[in-house]
Design a protein that fits this description.
By secondary structure, the protein is an alpha+beta fold. It is built from 6 helices and 8 strands; from the N terminus they run E-H-E-E-H-E-H-E-H-E-E-H-E-H.
Length: about 180
């Protein structure tokens, strides 16, 4: 069994798509997954599975729809894949505050034109880097007024995606490494 990290998009934001983490852990354990742990309330799960990440995404999406009554996008990375995301860290030289450093996880890489559109949204102080199925964004002034963040955090990328800050990513990697 390999440790995997499942990132659920848009749960527990506002009053819709509410899932208590104990209920989510129970649902996943009942479905046969092992070493199921969650981190914060925004849908971060570490579990052990023999299923490949892409297949696990579909399984988790079906399970959540059946168990909780709503659809949610799920992005999965193996512990090894997440370790590569952290090791790569293309903005390490500038991204000094982990809560303002975001990684957007994609189901598939974006077209070059879409990446250029995103890069053009960055302010002078922001930084943006793309590598395969991950987009790294540094928002030193926060995300509140960032046009880049507004696009990265929306559903308008054209592919299934979800974002996490660097603190969450490194914590999930630690949790996956302990499995």
């Amino acid at each position: 069994m390999e440790p995997q990290v499942a990132l659920l998009r848009g749960i527990n934001l506002g009053s819709h798509k509410r899932v208590a983490m104990p209920a989510l852990r129970n649902a996943l354990t009942d479905a046969g997954f092992e070493q199921v742990r969650t981190y914060v309330q925004s849908g971060n799960v570490v579990l052990s599975s023999t299923v490949k990440p892409a297949q696990l995404e579909r399984q988790l999406e079906r399970l959540i729809a059946q168990r909780f009554g709503f659809e949610v996008d799920v992005i999965v990375r193996s512990a090894k894949q997440l370790a590569e995301v952290v090791k790569r860290n293309p903005l390490a030289e500038v991204a000094r505050e982990p809560k303002r450093y975001q990684v957007t996880f994609l189901a598939q890489p974006l077209e070059r034109e879409r990446l250029e559109e995103l890069a053009a949204l960055a302010t002078d102080s922001e930084r943006f880097a793309a590598h395969g199925r991950e987009l790294y964004a540094w928002h030193p002034d926060g995300v509140a007024r960032s046009k880049l963040w507004a696009k990265l955090g929306s559903t308008g990328l054209g592919v299934k995606a979800t974002s996490r800050n660097w603190t969450t990513i490194t914590t999930l990697l630690e949790m996956a490494s302990e499995a």
